[in-house]
Amino acid sequence: MRWLIPGMTALVGACGSVKPTVLAEGQGVVRLECTIQEDGRLTDCNVLSERPVGQGFGEAALSAARQARLEPDALRPPGAKVQYNIRFRLDEPAALDLQPPRA
What we know:
Layout: E1 3-5, H1 8-14, H2 20-23, E2 27-36, E3 42-51, H3 57-65, E4 69-70, E5 81-89, E6 97-98
Antiparallel strand pairs: 1-4, 2-3, 2-5, 5-6
């Protein structure tokens, strides 16, 4: 399974919700669980973990997930749940890193 619309632009824009004090530390990690729809959209996303907690990374990841698309495959049919990590590296916004989804 690969990203069709990786959400990079959405992630960069969503970083506006991250609190300014966190920007100095430069990174955060969010683990999401979502349901894959037939057209590759991700729905019913939930934040499973967020570091640092309460600093806006979870909200930013959920915002990006609403715009992301995955290429469906036989191993993860529509309706399947996937979990993936979104790693924010705020010192290099263009290098925001979406990890491949795992079932």
